[in-house]
Each structure stands twice: as structure tokens, then as C-alpha cells.
Amino acid sequence: DLSPWPKTPSDYRAATREYAKQLRALATKVLAVLSLGLGLEEGRLEKEVGGMEELLLQMKINYYPKCPQPELALGVEAHTDVSALTFILHNMVPGLQLFYGGKWVTAKCVPN
What we know:
By secondary structure, the protein is of the alpha+beta class.
């Protein structure tokens, strides 16, 4: 349901719908490869999440313009994603952090 999303520019909703479609296709492929890589039968993880047709796709768009005083910048609070998979479209600006090994680690920006 894209009704809460902006109507302008005119192609925004169509582009968002197509992006969501491509994310769902990517999730299907990732779950299939993970199933095989874990030694499970093909499609097992997809089945465990309830099937791709029923899979909830949640899309968040966060934008943080450059802050002239970075020490005052606020972002998304520390949290745990509750989804089976999380895909992040990164804009090559450092800032995304992961809690790993008991500490916060900044994710590397890797093009493509």
C-alpha cells in the first residue's frame, strides 16, 4: 500500500513499487542460496518465513544531510532489526554502524 507515500514527483510511486518488487526477488534468491549453503533443502528458509507471497516487506527511507557540527548529529537510535533479512542501499557516506564483538564498528563503504 503506497497511499502514505508522496505523489510527487509523478513517477515516485511507480519507482518505489518496482524497487520493492526487485527487493522481494533479491530476498527470494538470498534465502534460496542460504538454504543450500546451510545444507538445507532448497526453499527451506523461504518456507520458514511463511513464503515470499506472504512476506512482509517494510521499507524505511532515512536521509541525514551533512551536519556542520557532526558531534551534534543524531541518527537512528541503536536497534535490532526484527526482520529475517535487511537490505541497505548505502550512499557511500560513512556512518552506518554494526554492534559486533561487543563494540560499535563502522561499516566499510564498498562500491557495487
